[in-house]
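Can you give me the bound-state structure? Components:
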Amino acid sequence: MLNQTAAGVPNGTYAEYVVSGAQLGVVHVPDTWSFEEAAQLGIAPLTALQCLHQTLELPSPFDGKPSPQRDILIWGGSSSVGQYAIQIAHLYGLRVFTTASPKNFELVKGLGADEVFDYRDAEVVEKVRAATGNALDIAIDCVSEGKTTEQVPAALGDKGGKVAIILPYQSPRPDVSVTFTLAYELIQPVRSSVQRFSSLITL
Amino acid sequence: MLATGKVKPNPVRLQPNGIAGVKEGLEFMAAGKVSPTEVASIAHIDVVYCPTGQRTEDNVSYFGYACALSVKKTNCALEILSLLYFVIGTCWFNDELEVCKLKLRTQKTLVCVPFRHEAKIGHLC
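Here's the bound-state model for the whole set.
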């Protein structure tokens, strides 16, 4: 990576120089990405990967694709994490169900979503359950507040499953586990700040 | 995945005026002109000044709180904070210390080293 444009998540910016661990958090920025676009690489795509591979325990991208026709729900598909989660899940061969506002349907479909539901639809949970044959067992809640704390666990099938969440909340279903993760966990020194920050925005 | 172009970045709205654009961006969102979660990067932060002697982390935290309070309960606050924790620039490694150093593309920034690495920064620079 010597003398290449790189992006990363070091502890502390606002500086002319910053120092980062060599094994964590620096990636080569493709020539096709602008600096402004590369500014996204620190949190959203890493959070998407953590949700998919740590929380939901899907195979590593280097272990081959998961079994065909496995379904995943990505609630809030047009969010920053959601857009990356859709793309990565699609690359792994998952069948991607997502929610968005109608104006973003084409955006999320273009990223690889197989079916999109209007999150404002009063019957959206029932529609997801029907589309997945009441067998959905993994989901990512890219909103993780308000109604979604009930809707996403409820969209899973009769046997329950796992939901990766990006803001902490309790599962309303005993057969559905929810696990909070954010890429900030990769940078331990700032974790306390992030926890305080998270508590502020969830007041 | 990035190099192959199979993963695309989020659409970006770029606010002018550097750090001052953050406030304008927040007001833009507060006015309901854009869905908060669609905004991946609301400001192009070239230069950010820290008070002399102020810890870098403190400044990041304070600014994060300000954003959080401004946008209240929107996930966009997380995206804003992520931008603050993020740097891009030219990277090179120092094998001896097993760290890499990123130099921001702007030369107008203040000298404010990450406090946890103060002991090393002199050597690195």
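A couple of observations. The longest helix of chain A spans residues 44-55. The longest strand of chain A covers residues 95-100.
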